[in-house]
Design brief:
This protein is α+β, with helices and mostly antiparallel strands. The chain is 39% helix and 10% strand. A 4-stranded antiparallel beta sheet has the order 1-2-3-4. Bound molecules: zinc ion.
């Protein structure tokens, strides 16, 4: 499934379930998270690299591209990296590059990897700790448990007796839209 953001991914996943009553929808969502947490935990546990698979591939790709770039020092932490007719400046102290990818992804961009050759440092000193595979293992360490059978629930009396009314809103005539309205230039 290719979508542009997480909200669209969830919308696509809940396309049919969102017609359910709210409690059934909430339980459906919990079930999806239970499945995802289990899958991600198992996948992350099977990795044996320093970084996550995605980050490892990205760094390797940048490193290979960086081999073709020439680098000159400005001072002991700022370096100029030449890429065709352009150049970028990498700040090793601030983990920043004028291409902004280093700053945004917190992974060494192609220019930052190129500086490693003359700084005698490893690209593996430059990434954010969130890309360490153990960080992913820990993120999914807590499983999502089922809520248990309804007959076993312990519901406080004030909750049982509470009446929740729907919000007051104007109901428009006609069928409600269920499909996303695409913005200009996007394809379904
Ligand atoms: Zn860069």
């Amino acid at each position: 499934m290719t979508t542009t953001n997480i909200a669209e991914s969830m919308n696509a996943k809940l396309k049919d379930a969102r017609k359910l009553p709210i409690t059934a929808l909430a339980n459906h969502l919990r079930g999806i998270l239970q499945e995802w947490f289990n899958e991600h935990q198992s996948t992350a546990s099977s990795w044996n690299s320093t970084l996550t698979k995605w980050a490892e591939e990205k760094v390797q790709k940048n490193q290979n591209r960086g081999l073709r770039m020439s680098v000159s020092s400005i001072n002991h932490y700022a370096l100029q990296v030449h890429e065709a007719d352009l150049y970028h400046i990498v700040d090793l102290n601030g983990k920043s590059c004028t291409c902004r990818r280093f700053d945004l992804n917190q992974l060494p961009c192609v220019h930052a990897t190129a500086t490693c050759r003359i700084c005698n440092t490893s690209v593996y000193n430059m990434y954010s700790k969130m890309y360490i595979d153990n960080a992913i293992v820990l993120a999914y360490a807590e499983p999502i448990w089922p809520v248990g059978n309804k007959s076993e629930w312990s519901v406080p009396e004030e909750v049982q007796n509470g009446v929740v009314l729907p919000p007051i809103r104007q109901v428009v005539s006609g069928r409600r839209k269920t499909n996303i309205i695409l913005s200009h230039g996007r394809k379904g």
